[in-house]
Amino acid sequence: MRIAKILTGAALGAVLTLTSPAAQAQSLVGKSVRVIVPYPAGGAGDVITRVLAQQVTESGGPSFVVENRPGAGSIIGSDVAARATPDGLTILLVENPFILGAVLHPTDHYHPVKSFDPICYLADTPSVIAVAGNSEYKTLAEFITAAKAKPGTLSYGSTGPASTVHIAGELLKRAAGIDLIYVPFPGTPPVVNAVLGGHVNAVIANYSDLKAQIDAKGLRAIGVPAQKRVDPLPDIPTLEEQGFKDIEASVWFGFVAPIGTPKDVLAQFEKYFTAAIEVPAVKAKLNVVGLYPKVSCGEKFGTFIATQTADYTKFVKEFDIKGE
Fold first, then answer.
1. Distance separating alpha carbons of residues 63 and 104, to the nearest angstrom
2. How far apart are alpha carbons 194 and 158 in whole angstroms?
3. pLDDT range class, residue 23, cuts 50, 70, 90
């Protein structure tokens, strides 16, 4: 009968729909996942990726192939990830430059929100304002007083231009009403050398990059761009405590996937990474390089990315910051 044929056809269509790859739950167990790290091997982003990947694999999750694709801040590797098939077998390690790079080059590349699905924010490291250990400036207040007394003579350096710490420096200049010379460097080590050599008065950088010199007393931390004191530097007052509100410059680390990645796959990544970051041995390895677990996943991480994109867009315009 015609009705029977119609029902049979409908039933067959339902079966085909339910058994299609898009409808079936995809398990990551036994799969090999490519993780694109848009930075050179050995950096903080590379370290957290490899530590977490190893823990997830050893805990029965998928295996990972870490692919370092540095260049243009983080744009080159991020572009590669944005163009990848959203099948759950490619994810991207992201940090602040993931957003800042897109803001500085808005028409040429990926979009932080529109091109990716958020997985998890997993750790961060505070930024620190520091002077040489033998500097005459013992506190941030002394440094600012001197800058006001000698406008345009004191200097600060950072990785940059157009970096998170560069923006933090410009926000501090505006809030304190001081005129500092900004000296950009291609990385943190040359900034540190310049401060130690007396060529630059202060440095703003990630704590993970300054930790060794602060521990060795080569550098003296005088302020943390954060709303509350951070665990590794409990005796160093925040900028908020010192009268400068809304200046935050922590560097965060997380993972995203190409837009359209199946939700069940995103949920599996979330489960694996949140479990891995809580393992004591993993925390210890991250703490050694100045990284501290802090977890926010799914929609919350997506909202964070959207907010950061809006904030960076505003700051780039306000301070007329140009990308290289």
1. 34
2. 10
3. very low
- Give the whole-angstrom CA distance, residue 64 versus residue 127: 30
- Please report how the helices 164-176 and 298-318 are oriented relative to each other, as an axis angle in degrees rounded to 10: 60
The count of residues in the chain is: 324
CA dist 61 and 30 (Å) reads 7
CATH superfamily, domain 29-125+251-318, is Bordetella uptake gene, domain 1 (3.40.190.150)
Q: How confident is the model at residue 324 (pLDDT cuts 50, 70, 90)?
A: low
Interval 56-86: pLDDT, tens: 999 999 999 999 999 888 999 999 999 999 9
What is the token pair recorded at 257?
Answer: 């996937």
CATH architecture of 127-223: 3-Layer(aba) Sandwich (3.40)
Question: 172: closest CA among 245, 70, 84, 250?
Answer: 245
CB 34 within 8 A of CB 83: no
Q: Does the structure show a pLDDT above 60 at 13?
A: no
Long-range contacts of 210-218 (CB under 8 A, 24+ apart): 210/128, 210/130, 211/289, 211/290, 213/130, 214/128, 214/130, 217/133, 218/132, 218/133, 218/192
Q: How far apart are the C-alpha atoms of 7 and 11, rounded to whole Å?
A: 6
Predicted confidence at residue 29, as pLDDT, reads 92
Sorted by where each begins, the domain ranges of the chain are: 29-125+251-318, 127-223
Beta strands in the chain (DSSP E): 32-37, 63-68, 90-94, 116-125, 127-132, 155-159, 181-185, 202-206, 219-223, 251-258, 292-297
* Identical fold, 29-125+251-318 and 127-223: yes
The encoded tokens of residue 235 equal: 């005796």
Return the structure tokens found at 170: 């410009």
The pLDDT, as a whole number, for residue 255 is 98
- Given pLDDT bands bounded at 50, 70 and 90, which one contains residue 161? confident
Provide the whole-model pTM: 0.84
